[in-house]
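U., I forgot to send this yesterday:
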Amino acid sequence: MSAFLTRITLVRDAASTLDTTLSRQTALLTLVGGGLQGPPGELGGEVAADIDMLGFDLHNAGVVSFVGEYDNGLSGAAKPIVLAVGTKQKVVVDTDTVLTIDPVTAGVGHYQVRIIMDGFGGHTVTIAGINNARWLGSASAPDVNTSPNGESILSIFFDGANMIQSLAKVGA
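Result:
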């Protein structure tokens, strides 16, 4: 028999705990790193810590937004793009470069990397660490937008073992 949420109580004490009572099961989640924020008695606000869903689903979330893109900085001649640091990332290409996609500790998910040319543009970009036969709509890696300040979006679906990717030029 599955557990259904029957009551949720927000306790705003020094320990910053969120007490949830489930049928046949009670879970106590202690939030660290600042706990819950927002007006007392308001369900919502912000959680200043990671929440481990313990394999349970998140339902009726409405809007899930992101704080921002992870900034990989300038590419240099070679730059690892570690998917585990964020599902939304960017890198500025300042010379001919090899971007190596690293999914090692990443979870299953959809990832996007915004590849931005510097003000000069014209740099070649090689994307490594992927299976070149798994591009959507292409037998090999498409070219990035090499215009000065040009942008391309690299989208990756990672199933925990394999990546499927696509690349689109912005405004080109």
